Amino acid sequence: QLQLVESGGGLVQPGGSLRLSCAASGYSLNDYSIAWFRQAPGKEREAISCISSDDDSTYYADSVKGRFTVSRDNAGDTVYLQMNSLKPEDTAVYYCAADRVSQNSDTWYLRLLYDYWGQGTQVTVSS
């Protein structure tokens, strides 16, 4: 069973950067579409980015477009979310999720499509 582990969260000042990692022990993530979701206190879990399994197409929510970048490492073991120009409203628990099916602009953000989830990592943006 694929088990995802996120890391890289923490406390950062507004305008700062963090890089989150999503890894799965014993599995290559190259066969999976990997999405990043986040959930702030009292809010719904929202999709913010995805890298598709077939051609590594990437997708972003409007709220993070131009600031966040999703990528895979060359070995396919890890998916990263580089977060720049962080804002207090980016504060949330960040989750990575995996699905074997390739995604497109109409599907990548649908939470129910993803079969595997990590436990989440806290990101706090505050001065």
Spell out the key features of this protein.
single chain; 127 residues; mainly beta; seven-stranded mixed sheet; 11 strands
State the separation between the terminal residues, measured CA to CA. 40 Å
Derived structural class: mainly beta
DSSP, total strands: 11
Order of helices and strands: EEEEEEEEEEE
Detail the poorly predicted runs. Answer: none
Radius of gyration: 13 Å
Structure description:
The chain is 0% helix and 44% strand. The protein starts with a strand and ends with a strand. A hairpin with a 6-residue loop joins strand 4 and strand 5 (46-51). The strands form two sheets. Strands 2, 4, 5, 6, 9, 10 and 11 form a seven-stranded mixed β-sheet that branches. The model has no long low-confidence stretch (mean pLDDT 95). It has strands at residues 4-7, 10-12, 18-24, 33-39, 46-51, 58-60, 68-72, 78-83, 92-99, 116-117, 121-125. By secondary structure, the chain is an all-beta fold. The chain has no helices and eleven strands.
Secondary-structure map:
Elements: E1 4-7, E2 10-12, E3 18-24, E4 33-39, E5 46-51, E6 58-60, E7 68-72, E8 78-83, E9 92-99, E10 116-117, E11 121-125
Parallel strand pairs: 2-11
Antiparallel strand pairs: 1-3, 3-8, 4-5, 4-9, 5-6, 7-8, 9-10, 9-11
